[in-house]
Amino acid sequence: MSNLALISTLVFVVVTMLVSVWQKLGLEKDVAIGTIRSAVQLLLVGYVLQFVFHTDRPWFMVLIIGVMIAVASWNAGQRAKGVAGIRLRIAVAITATEAITMTLLLGFGIIQPTPQYIIPISGITIGSAMIVAGLLLNQMKRELEASRGEIEALLALGATLRQAIQQSLKRSIKSSMIPTIDGMKTVGLVQLPGMMTGMIVAGANPVEAVRYQILIMFVLSSSAAITGMLLGLISYKLWFTRDGRLRPGG
Description:
The radius of gyration is 21 Å and the shape is globular. By secondary structure, the chain is mainly alpha-helical. The chain is built from ten helices and no strands. It is a multi-pass membrane protein. It comes from Paenibacillus ehimensis. Belongs to the UPF0014 family.
């Protein structure tokens, strides 16, 4: 793609801003900031990856993955700002998800142990885990507020923290995985995923592109399940005070 063609894609941003002005949504500033940030961030990442792909220093790759996990944990943690220690739990869950995923992919020889494969797939895995974590925390807040009376009654009857919160936790984990599951059900029929589309546009064989996309979809489903269940397991106590009462505000 030429620089002129890339610049011309700004017409889509202009259309978005015009719709915002027309409907008085007040999103023009956010759209402009988002456009600039995404362009700058992606360009920087492009140059960094170009450097990493041509170097033999594995710690550069580890550093990039670490930054991904840190940013993802911070962003997902915004969904539960008042819950102390939640970002650390998110980081643990995402790191475990990444470690399990990469161990299986590399152990079975599904991908080659090079930055060209590890970094993009890590980005997809960590991004999916971040979304699942954010959805889980968002749903947990709603669940706990709606079920506050039930949970407090169970605690009063002698239930453990885990027993009292179990049903809310299960519903939250299930809710966090729904977008991933729905995406798997409709992929290829309703949408052509980005990785597959990018490979086809770049000239790859469509069947080969589909094979890689199937791999990614299976990785996404696994990362969603691992992240949701692990984060729920290691974070549920944070929703309670030290003396075993449900925190105010869910």
